[in-house]
Specification:
The protein has 460 residues and is of the alpha/beta class. It has helices spanning 27-43, 59-71, 85-94, 128-139, 155-163, 188-192, 224-233, 260-271, 288-296, 308-317, 342-354, 360-363, 385-398, 438-458; strands at 17-20, 48-53, 76-82, 100-103, 112-118, 149-151, 174-178, 198-201, 237-241, 248-251, 257-258, 279-283, 300-304, 322-324, 330-332, 371-372, 376-379, 402-404, 409-413, 416-422, 428-435. The mean pLDDT is 96.
Length: 460
């Protein structure tokens, strides 16, 4: 392996490093990132880091190359091997070693891979930090040394964290879980069977090809098998998990998809009387139903930009008891260390059910009614997508629309909103629309999708 002078700059994205294997990310790329990472934390006075990898087919070879790069800078490595991203997060906390790299492409397609990484206690790198790291790598001035490699099994500690954290009631809940053949497959069964619940598992074999469906449980189309199984076995709830285990998707007892912002309403209803600080974070994609409900309950909502690295850091820095984003990342800090774990998010919902006779559908009653689209994607290369979003902002100014620009452009109407933003994880522009009626939703959607299609056509 060798230092890759012509490393693909486009893989350095808003929240992590991510690209297609092996055309955009290969072993030399991983080795080069290892050289850069080891040298960078050496400059910060660090001597040790933690590394782990998900179950994608390309992850072991990229993991080995990354390790070689880091070791050659004189940094010692604690290797976790195959693990979920939340297990990696907890290892950093448990071992008080906050510098680390997780080899994963999260919920992306099977041929993608990448790296989530943190230099120190600040957590996952994001935004300008990632671009600064790219600049550092391109200088090619790396430390040289011989680090040591040790291995650590985080699983017993991780299981104990769950065992001590959850308090189930008398009702025995029946749940269908769908790891989607992703990395939660390596621990989900053992973990869920620790608790007084009846567990049915589908797609529970670890298979980095994700042969049964795309590993993104917050896209309703990926949950059809889960819905069918919930109805088939008469389960109280269905839970799906993404490729690396930090996100969760939920279907109710009637096999109705419950988006993450609605899940957050159920959690906040449960904990608001139990926490001292009644302020909760949500991202710009979330329904106004969430902010309405927080206000009705006597709490305060904090709207923030999208992005796991950003939202998790803000929940921590603002010392909030709970927060999350529509993509499925949620962060509990009431009695949990604050990192996102899909398996834990699911168990918190099961804990609520075990202490009530209500169904999930009944718990979700009374949520303010808004009509919204799923997140829509428009293909746009990385070199044009931000410029097109800027044009949407200019249009909003010309129309004298009220809008937020904390993350893309969110145009606010009295009876709805339109959100257009550049994806930080792929060559796309994403859009979402919401309104009080379906008729108004169609009008808002048509206005901005027509605008997007026109701007995209203009740059062809």
């Amino acid at each position: 392996m060798k230092y890759k002078e012509d490393i693909n700059k486009n893989i350095f994205r808003g929240y992590d490093i991510r690209g297609i294997y092996p055309t955009e990310i290969d072993e030399d790329t991983a080795y080069t990132i290892g050289l850069g990472f080891g040298s960078y934390i050496h400059d910060l006075g660090k001597t040790t880091c933690i590394v782990g990898h998900d179950n994608r087919l390309s992850s072991p070879v990229l993991y080995d190359a990354l390790i070689k790069g880091i070791l050659s800078t004189g940094i010692d490595i604690i290797s976790l091997g195959l693990c979920t991203t939340p297990m990696y997060y907890y290892a950093c906390i448990k071992l008080k070693t906050y510098s680390g790299v997780m080899v994963t492409a999260s919920h992306n397609p099977k041929d993608d891979n990448g790296f989530k990484f943190a230099f120190d206690e600040a957590g996952n790198c994001k935004g300008q930090e990632i671009q600064d790291f790219l600049t550092y790598i391109l200088r090619g001035q790396f430390h040289r040394g011989e680090g040591t490699l040790s291995r650590y099994d985080i699983e017993p500690d991780y299981l104990e964290l769950f065992r001590n954290n959850l308090h189930f009631g008398d009702r025995r809940v029946k749940v269908v879980i769908d790891p989607g053949n992703g990395t939660t497959s390596v621990i989900a069964k053992k973990l869920y069977e620790m608790f007084p619940i009846d567990v049915v598992i589908i797609n529970g074999e670890s298979d980095g090809r994700f042969p049964n469906h795309h590993p993104d449980p917050c896209v309703e189309d990926n949950l059809q098998q889960l819905k069918d199984k919930v109805l088939d076995v008469g389960a109280d709830i269905g839970l799906g998990f993404d490729g690396d285990g930090d996100r969760m998707g939920l279907v109710t007892n009637s096999a109705r998809f419950l988006p993450t912002d609605y899940y957050m309403i159920l959690i906040i209803r449960d904990i608001i009387s139990k926490v001292e600080k009644k302020e909760f974070l949500y991202d710009v994609k979330c329904s106004k139903a969430l902010s309405d409900e927080i206000e009705r309950l006597g709490g305060k909502g904090l709207c923030y930009r999208t992005g796991n690295s950003y939202t998790k850091a803000m929940v921590r820095d603002a010392v909030l008891p709970f927060g999350g984003e529509l993509s499925g990342h949620v962060y509990f800090r009431d009695r949990w260390p604050g990192f996102d774990s899909g398996l834990y998010a699911g168990l918190r919902m099961l804990e609520i059910l075990s202490n009530t006779n209500k169904t999930v559908d009944e718990l979700a009653q009374g949520i303010p009614v808004y009509y919204s689209t799923p997140e829509l994607k428009f293909t746009a290369s990385d070199d044009i997508k931000f410029g097109i979003v800027d044009k949407i902002g200019e249009y909003a100014k010309e129309k004298n629309y009220k809008f937020l620009d904390i993350d893309g452009v969110k145009v606010l109407f009295d009876d709805g909103w339109a959100l257009v933003r550049a994806s930080n994880t792929g060559p796309n522009i994403t859009a979402r629309f919401e309104a009080r009626t379906n008729e108004r939703l169609d009008i808002i959607k048509q206005e901005f999708t027509n605008l997007l299609e026109k701007y995209l056509k203009d740059v062809e």
